[in-house]
Every structure is written in structure tokens, then in C-alpha cells.
Fold this sequence. Notes:
This protein is an alpha+beta fold. It has helices at about 15-25, 100-105, 175-185, 205-220, and strands at about 30-40, 45-50, 55, 60, 65-70, 75, 80, 90-95, 120-125, 145, 155-160, 165-170, 170, 190-195, 200-205.
Amino acid sequence: MSVGNLGKTTNSLDDAMGARALDERQAQWGEMPGRIVSMNYAKQTATIQPLHKPKFNGTPVDMPELMEVPVRFTRAGFGGITFPVQPGDHVTLRPQMRSSELYHTKGDGAASDARSFNLSDMEAFLDGGESLGNPIPNFDSMNAHIRFSADGQYGIKGSKDGKIKIEGSQGNIYDLLVQVVELLASDALLIKYGSSGGSGHELQHKAQYLAIANKLRAMAL
């Protein structure tokens, strides 16, 4: 390229087309991480702060919050998995190829205008968004794990050979049920005679049954 192509009024056609193509590309938005500011559980929409910081005059600046962003939960057939999304949770923001307000208001997939990959058509997906500096703690590399707590202490695990573990605040539910069955297998009926000559009876392991029942009751929603 010659020096003359770099002036204000002497740019070549290639320079002008290259600058326009760059502007168009930079005007399109791709995936980016975001942070939940507030959540509308009835509508499953959220106010979200994008975590990408574009530069203006060389200085990174915060983007404006996005309003009424659809939050996508796992859902198919007659089932779904929902999460109690909280302010501060991270999500992945994904733009739609074309404008999507007609789809969300009328179920019509037609585009209302010519915009594409626009901030106003972002949707939030609950597949994380955290940086690699914040990995999932206590990751189980051997079993499938649905976690109910951030540290993985409570939840459901399943192995490829069909073993299941449900861990709650009082312990493993299956362990508690096994204890009940083992107590039943070794139980006996105790006959009690009162001082007045009357008699009664109760199970030998009654107190242990009640203790296990209290643990199970404490874990029930």
C-alpha cells in the first residue's frame, strides 16, 4: 500500500471497503458472559448485565443492562429442569440471527426488521458463564451429578452401573432406608408387664425407627 492511501481524502476503494466491513462486523454481537441483576420467575425473563466491556476511545466501559431477556431452561416433552436463579448468577448471552420479538409475542418466526445478531435479541442460557478461574468445586469424575448446593454436598448421583445416591442434610436417603430394613430383619416383639399386672408390647428397635423417621422428615420439602 502506498503512503497516499493513508490520507483522509486519498484512501483507496480497498481501504474504504475494508473499513466498512470491519464496522459491520464490530456492529454484530456474538456470545458473551452476563450476570443476573434481577429475575422474573413468572415470565422467566431477567435483567442482565453483560460482562463484556467494549472500548471507547481506548477505554473499556460497562455495557448497559439488558431488560426482559428470555432465560432458557432445559425443557422438552412434558418435563423440564428449573433452577432458582439468583442475582449475581452468571449466564451465557446468545444473540438471535434475526429480530425475535414477534416470536416471543405472537409465536411468529418472521423478522420484524432487518437487524441481526443484535443486543435486543439476546437470550440467556444457564450453562454457566463463569471464567476458568472459577471451576465447579468437588467435581465428580466418575458419576453423573445433579447438584443442589454449590459445593456439591447435597444432590443426586448416578453411576453407569445403575447405583444411585441421594444426599440430603441428614445423610444418604438410601443408607437410612437400608438401616430400616436391617432393623426390621432383626427386630422382635417385646412383651412388657406392668406393676399392676397388666401387659403390653412394642418393637425392640422402636426408638431407632423413630430416629430414622425424624431424619427423613427433616429432609422432606
